[in-house]
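Instructor's aside before we start: the two examples that follow are unrelated to each other. I chose them only because their records fit on one page, so don't look for a connection. First example below.
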Amino acid sequence: MSVVKPVVVLGIFNADAVYRAERQPKIGETVMGEKFKLEAGGKGSNQAVSAARASGETGPEVHFISRLGADDFAKMARKIWSETGIIADVTEDPETHTGSAFIFIEAATGNNAIIVCPGAAGKMTAADLEARADLIGSASVFVTQLETPVESVRAGLAIARKAGVKTILNPAPARALDDELLALCDYLTPNESEAELLTGIAVTDRAGAEAAADALMARGVGAVVVTLGENGVLYRDQSRTIHVPVARAGAVAETTGAGDSFNGAFAVALAEGQPVEEALRFANAAAGISVTRPGASDSMASRAEIDALLARG
């Protein structure tokens, strides 16, 4: 049994139905597809899987707060969580469905078009979080994104802050946020486009990332971690700036889920008390491994893989 306090994640699970074809059909038309795959998705679930795998045998327990329908996609979610060791603190809602997404991929370009139906998770309320206040208060780190309604995100962050729990907000999908909510975030982890949407500052280089981070800290955020894709990650708080280059674990197969991998592993490292620079390197290694494999949840790195990559220096 781990002596490290848990990581608690709020978010959604999506069953992603991925279709690859030459082009999208027009209304009333049928086209033949080239490939299909049903994958586990949803940023919150992906981050919980990342955290659980990064935790290994001695790291923190990982709890996931969400809503599911009473259907086959819910069974899919529970199977993945069980296999990964995630403890599901989930309400089943028989009145609606588990989150799902239609993803069309254009074969020639890889461009996509997506329809997301969050279903049960789209009905998360502040009351769902208040009912789990004891769990959140017992955590070392609370992690959330913006796929559940903002009122649930705000409630979870507020409960964690009141209990002295570290808070991480991954502001995706990107949307405008008020200063009151931002002030509840010990760590905000946008990518370049999310940082730009929140601040109006173009993030095309390190100087832009630093300026965006400063603007967000001026609005109350404790520290900002801007994920920069192939350029690594930039961390900035009131007293220091740290840039960590990308961790290269092999040829890039697919970048889907890399940000989720980073956030889940970063939460584990913080829960274990790793200094920020080491936590950033740990999370970067997890993300670097994830991009060498296709898929989202399926690509998340194990603790042994992360440790081995870090040992290579």
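Example two begins here.
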Amino acid sequence: MDRQSASARSPRLALLAASLGFVIICLDVTVVNVALERIGKTLSVGSTGLEWVVNAYTLAFASLLLSAGALGDRLGARRVFVGGLALFTLASIACGLAPSASVLIATRVVQGIAAALCVPSSLSLLNTCFPDPTARAKAVSVWAGTAALALGAGPVVGGVLVDRFGWPSIFLINVPFGVVGIWLTLAHAPDSARNAARHIDLPGQALGVISLAALTFGVVESGRLGWESPSVMTGLAGFVVFSALFVMVERQQPHPMLPLLLFRIPAVNVTSVVGLLLNFGYYGLMFAMSLFFQTVQSYTPLEAGLAFLPMTAVVTVANLVSGALAARFGYRLPMVVGQALAATGFFLSFTMIGAGSSYLTITVPLLAIGVGVALAVPSINVALLTHIDPPYVGIASGVLNTARQIGGAIGVGVFGSLFVGTVSDKVSGLHTAAMIAGGGMVAGALIAIVVLKRAGASIDLRPSTLR
């Protein structure tokens, strides 16, 4: 590309493109929930089919993040991001026009595949567009903030769209955002470096997808069937077996999909563990509190969505603050402080959330949790980008986002399995889950303090040393 066209690029518009792609991907995680009743009536599908309308997306998304990250490193982040966003847009149209539940579930799988292509490559785009660490930290906070806003606004947006325009509108709304995101990416995002020396690792790809699919299936189904279910146990056992095979194969491959030496970098391990713990608590809480508002406090689905708006607002602001803190003090401070604040919120929920608690009382721990998680999430992305060479940002981002997706799925499974029985049992189960999540936040903060080097420290990661 010539100098003039390169100089006409705007990193801010490239950030907007990456954020738009992330927004519609995250929106589809929560927006579908409020449309399930209408979908069930229109397509004549039962509860199991409706669960798979949600789970098909999660399963495909979580299973393919590693492979998609490696593909982005090989082919270039911009190319993979645009391809993923185009596929997501087309799949959204197919979802909105689906004539039956089976077609809708199939197109939701395609959406999940496309989402997996977009997420690691969107982070790689930011790494390329913002080489300055300070600017990159702020960009990552905006990227994460828009995603958090989409997740929190999903139930409200879904409720309004379903009431006014019918359930297909929750999918068709993605189309204009996808088109604009593709155009902005092509116009303003530079073509990132490609690691063409990395060959396609078909055995590693296959085993990675199978192991992650088995884990995601087991965890997702645990909420419906229970952890002792043969299907759930088979899924978890399959994850163990295929993960062991995956590690064995990757050790022998001359060009592995996932270079295992990446895990010698403390930032990779810390961000993955912290990301898993953050999503475990946050997604588990969002799931359980949505049920709490509706089944314990008799809110309508729309009222339950509106109940999360204060939390959504502070999460968006806290994400932006996190970027400023990371730019000035390094990534470790917001990571540790955020987890400490989230832990405080989880522990407060033990005493402040009950069947007869007022909305204002319930909001206090929710705000603490939301702000804490929002402070920590951008910092783990900044920490990862700081310590990874550009040719491996895609696969490293795939590792982090896979860990986060696994954490979220486990959180929903654990919180869901504990939130059962009578009203008293549900509240008690919510308290137990909150204490577990709070303990996880404390553990994550301690890991970040002890394992991570001083903020801003760099590690020499030469691609030639990776196998």
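The chain has three domains: 10-187, 204-252, 262-455.
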